[in-house]
Amino acid sequence: MPILFKKFARSLSGFPIHLKIYFMVVSAIVLLALISLFAIRISVTDTMSVQLDERVKSISGDVAARTGDLLLTNNIYAMQTLVNDTIDNYNDLEYVFILNEDNEVLVDSYSDGHVSEEIIHANSVEDEEFNHLLTFRSEEGIIRDAAAPVDKGIDGTVRVGLRDDSLETAISSVTFQIISFMVLLILFSLAIVMKLTRIITNPINDLVSLTNRVAKGDMTARIDAYPKDEIGDLTESFHDMLGTLETAKSEKENYLNQIITRNRELTLLNDLSDNPHTIKDFNQMMNHFVRDLVHELKLGSGVIEATINQQQEYFSYQAEGCPAENTACLEDWTCVCEKKEYNIKSVFPIYSNQQKIGQIKICSGDVLDAYSEKILDSIANHLGTVIENNELSHEIKKKEEIRQMLLEKIMTVQEDERKRIARELHDETGHALSSILLGLKMMEDAESPDEINHQIQKLRKLTHQSIENIHDLAWQLRPTILDKFGLKVAIERYMEEFKQKLDIDYDVLINGIDTTRLTPEMETAIFRIVQESLTNIFKYANASSVSVIIIRNDDLISVIIEDDGTGFNVDSMVNKDPSKFNLGLHGMQERASLLGGTFEIESETGKGTAVMVKLPISDESGESYENTYYAG
């Protein structure tokens, strides 16, 4: 048996793949159909046999039940009619006859009226048996004979014979249906298999064609690889084999180009490694860098445009044979040099903090290769970092200058304040106390009560005046009302005093801090910012109305001071070097920054000024008036 199987397998190996697939599919379908046919025939036969047995028993029992009264009255005619009707109603009945107690045929369904003794004695009913079923083969085929006793206590038997015609018909019908379905399934399967076979064999044929092309020397030949199957894997492996030599050569070239590219990049980046301390040093570094960039990449010219410290800067260099006076970049990015046109590569943008701040423009006689483009992209990215670091360094230096000037101003203000306090204590408070001493001396020398009362009234007036002067002096140093009653009351009180100095209209809107105190640091900062803003309005704005708005919203407090004065150019004032003219603005900005807030100014000449401060409030920043009282 194994030898025959090997011979059969060897004989199949000589056929094409698609024929092998057809044979296997058809064989599997035929085998499955035959197994299904036999299984269904057996199942149908068993089921139909049980149904026929129950049917013939039911018919015989029904006839026996209806025969009892007829047999009791010996109504032969009625019994014959019952037998004939039963035969007419059931086409597959072979016979029906009724026996008396002596097993003699009273009536039957045979046309000649003769029932063979063999059939009469073939089946009988045992005692206490409802009916008895017997199956035997006759000339007409298999007969199912059912014997049922007659009711009414009368001895007699009804015999019914049923042919297997319906069983044979059902089995033949099922067999025909299965065979028809099998034929249709084979045809449908062949159609699908033919399509699937093409999907399998076409890649193989393409692969064979590829091998023939490679055999003729075409090493660049490739075919589409069918993914996710063995043929696709084979095709990919074949492609890998063909690309081995080309890959090795390409890897060597790439490695060499990477070394060259890296050396060029490091050479150029080395020019940007210095840490210039001044703007002049930074500009020299950038000019030197542009020159090396043009030489290293063999360019015609190079231009770097960038916004540095909020000013637009340009750094350019032209190679030999392309002097600046003969170079012009047209609107379509064509670079003209000595009557020659050079194509310019798309500009390389420079980004800082995800914002475009400049670009590198390149003029080149040749199309830039991928490695040069990579170098320029890397340099553009690094330039963004260099420019950002330079701006940060410049900003730190500028802030340090501002801090130094603020410190000097604080010291100067402290010294001036000490002088003013000493002067006012000497001029006003000292004189008042001297007058009080003199008044007391005069009271000692007074002789009449009227004169004493007059001196007392005079001394009381001098005392009140001294107290008022000391109170004003303390208020100017630090308003105690800020510590005792909070920011809202302090601002309103200061606005009233401000109106006495400058007769203008003012509005004050304060929400959110009526019942909740801020931290002393935040209240002081807001008060000083408002104070400095109003001082600037008094000195420079020439305003007719002022608005002060302080609103607390959840974890943020907003402060807005507006006026309708002359206004000014914000950029020129804020961005210029620190001086006495903008030191107050920097001081307010510094106060907001120390508390983690923001400081903005909006102004336009002739349209007034708005100072806007936003300060974050932590969970611990506010306390109820009921629970907090600052010493003052």
From TrEMBL:
Top-tier EC class: transferase
Principal location class: membrane
Keywords assigned: ATP-binding, Cell membrane, Kinase, Membrane, Nucleotide-binding, Phosphoprotein, Transferase, Transmembrane, Transmembrane helix, Two-component regulatory system
Subcellular location: Cell membrane
Domain Histidine kinase: 424-619
GO CC annotation terms, alphabetical: plasma membrane
UniProt domain HAMP: residue ranges: 198-250
Segments crossing the lipid bilayer: 21-44, 170-193
PROSITE patterns per the UniProt record, alphabetical: HAMP, HIS_KIN
EC identifiers of the protein: 2.7.13.3
Membrane topology: Multi-pass membrane protein
Record-linked Pfam families: HAMP (PF00672), HATPase_c (PF02518), HisKA_3 (PF07730)
PANTHER family per UniProt: NITRATE/NITRITE SENSOR PROTEIN NARX-RELATED, NITRATE_NITRITE SENSOR PROTEIN NARQ
Protein name: histidine kinase
